[in-house]
Structures are given as C-alpha cells and as structure tokens.
Amino acid sequence: MLAAILLFAVGPAAAEPLFTLSEDGKTFLYRARPGDHPGGVAEMFGISQRDVPAFLAANGISDATRVGAGFVYRIPNAAARALGDRTATLEAENARLKRIAGEQRVEAERLGRAAEEARTESAVAQARATRLERLGRLWPWANAALALLLAAAAAALYTAVAAMRRHTEAERYARSLANELEEKRRASLSERQQSARQILDLEERVRTLEAKLGPRAVMGGRSAS
After folding, report:
1. Hey, what CATH class is 2-76 in?
2. pLDDT digits (tens, 9 = 90+) for 127-185
3. Of 13, 88, 97, 152, which shows the fewest CB atoms inside 10 Å?
4. What is the rounded (10 degree) CA torsion for 37, 42, 46, 49?
5. How far apart are CA 222 and CA 200, in angstroms?
6. Is the CB of residue 75 less than 8 Å from the CB of residue 30?
C-alpha cells in the first residue's frame, strides 16, 4: 500500500510531490488540491471508512464539505509508527534486560560476598581443625604431665600430712615435757617448803630448849663445846 501511495505521489511528471514527510518522519503532509474530498484523501492513504471520523478529528475538520484546496492534511505514517512502536518495544525490552542485568549483578555480588564469607568460615574451620589435631597429638603428653602433677601433688600432700603429724607429736611431747617439768618444779618447791618448815621447827625447838635451860646453861654449854 505504501509503495502504491509513493508511486501515485510521484506520478509520471514528478514536477511537484503530492505529499511530504514531517521532520520526524512519522507524519505525511498532504496539501489538498481542487476537487479533493476528505474521504477521498483518507482512502488514498489507505484509511478505512471506520477510521475516517478519527482522521477528520485528528486534522481538526468538523465539516468535511468545507475543506478547500490548500488545506494540509496530516496523515500518520503507519510504517514510521510501527517502527516507533518497535523501537519503543525494543527500548522497553532493553530497559528490562538492563534491569535484569543489574539485578543479576547485584545477585552476583551477593553470591560473591557469600562465597567470600564461606571461604573465610572454611579457613577458620580448617584452622580450628588443625588446632584440634595438634591438641589431639599433644593429648597423651598432657595426660602424662597431668599424671605426674597428680603424683607430685599426692607426694606433697603425704609429706605435708606427715609433717603435720610430726609437728603434732612434737607439740604433744613438748607439752608432756612441760607438764613433767612443772610437776618436778612443784615437787621440788614442796620439798623446799617442807625443809624450810623442818628448819623452822628445829629452830623453834632450840629456842624452846634454850628458854628452859636458861641463859647460863646455854652459855656454859656453848663454852664447853
């Protein structure tokens, strides 16, 4: 249809174009000639009778009988419109693909971070396993050292208990000696007190005897002696 319109527009003489295109290429510009009728113009550009009212309204025609020569009709370029629709569809698809690519990039970054975290956790777990393995190899030596420490602690405890027993026995023996010495001191003191009492008794008897015999007898006896 578009090719037929172009052939009809150029014509054999091709002196003056029947119509032109707008700058954006989306609209045919047709200048009416004497004898043209809006319905005929619509039919010439392949517009169906059903779409004629919309065609007239789009061109601001309220009375089709009063359109004179020189009126410029604006007819949508179906090919350009289809191309524009296709371009819009492609742009929308491109935007959708860009959005999907952005989402996939974000997801890839998230997965990368998750993988890095997983590698870090794996390294930590491996280091922990290495430490546990090293501790497992050292465990028998640790058990032996613990046994030695327990034996040393038991020996020290036995020595401490024995020392406490010896100390207790020494204290008991010291108290026994102290008690024995105290008893001996008391016995010696009692003996000295008894001796002192005996001496006092003898002196008392001597004084009594001297009193009975008189001073002369005592002096004579002392002289004779």
Report:
1. alpha beta
2. 989 888 888 888 888 888 889 889 888 988 888 888 888 888 888 888 888 898 888 88
3. 13
4. -100
5. 21
6. yes
